[in-house]
Amino acid sequence: xxxxxxxxxxxxxxxxxxxxxxxxxxxxxxxxxxxxxxxxxxxxxxxxxxxxxxxxxxxxxxxxxxxxxxxxxxxxxxxxxxxxxxxxxxxxxxxxxxxxxxxxxxxxxxxxxxxxxxxxxxxxxxxxxxxxxxxxxxxxxxxxxxxxxxxxxxxxxxxxxxxxxxxxxxxxxxxxxxxxxxxxxxxxxxxxxxxxxxxxxxxxxxxxxxxxxxxxxxxxxxxxxxxxxxxxxxxxxxxxxxxxxxxxxxxxxxxxxxxxxxxxxxxxxxxxxxxxxxxxxxxxxxxxxxxxxxxxxxxxxxxxxxxxxxxxxxxxxxxxxxxxxxxxxxxxxxxxxxxxxxxxxxxxxxxxxxxxxxxxxxxxxxxxxxxxxxxxxxxxxxxxxxxxxxxxxx
Length: 394
Hints:
Blueprint: H1 23-32, E1 38-39, H2 51-62, H3 75-89, E2 99-103, H4 104-114, E3 122-127, H5 133-139, E4 143-148, H6 158-168, E5 173-179, H7 191-201, E6 207-211, H8 226-229, E7 234-239, E8 251-255, H9 258-272, H10 277-289, H11 293-314, E9 327-331, H12 340-351, E10 353-354, E11 356-357, E12 368-372, H13 377-393
Parallel strand pairs: 1-10, 3-4, 3-5, 5-6, 6-7
Antiparallel strand pairs: 2-8, 7-8, 9-12, 11-12
Cofactor: pyridoxal 5'-phosphate
Enzyme class: transferase
Pfam families: Aminotran_1_2
């Protein structure tokens, strides 16, 4: 096994080197080593990929569809994405020039930010939110501006956005990063709340990167995309991981104005060349013939959500009912005098329940913990029994 030569130990990217790994993954792996622990950490659907989607991938292999696709993805898949966005969210994108198929939504986020940020540029990130936004901005030389939204029900208001832009300097703020339905909170924006943000951004020299990966998982209402209200400035991120339980297939996409997609496409081509063929054919099948596949999953998620919210509130963990995604985000009682990391560690080692500490989702997440209910009801019920016993011990 080679050992790094001492002469190159300090030859590193000085921005990347001091960064830690995703706190979500760190805690998930740490807790997985505890015997008997029920893990409610990762946001990964516990459903299998629909059979017709799997078969599409298998058939593509049997038919030797093994050569490079277009760098931005097969045109047939981009047409399927375009048709899906039109049918589901009334969004119109030219499949030839306004869509890039990426290696998951994560690459779509990276490519989009890379096409925007120059060193010193600022990106506004409401927190708590998905953990990867902040390090990606830093890696690209940008400055993440975290905005704590806890006091406003985990939503960024137009007033607060205006204040932050003025404080940070309108000439330096180049993007707003939104995620809704939200991870870790499960909260959404109504059309009126989105319009507040649009009214602020529309006259500014900045983009909005709208990560809507959970768009199919809303409860009691239909998702409204920001791209419908601000198409010329919105970079829409989505994918198949959550809607069709296709996390391992790694198919996401970014849709936006042609001139922007041309720039983002350069970074995509430089980093990955093109997505995997079998995964693309599976995604095409899911979008063309599996639009209703998420419905059954969503019904199960909602049952789990309702059970969890009731149990958590009964145990004294203030929990608002999520309107989308598959997470609860609960407040840790102040009387425990524990940080979110201390609480999660203690619950795992003493209560044998794995949750994610709120601070893993940015400054606004401290004092809370996230539970992923992308797990069986059996595990969730047992976890609540253990949480009750643990809470009583505190």
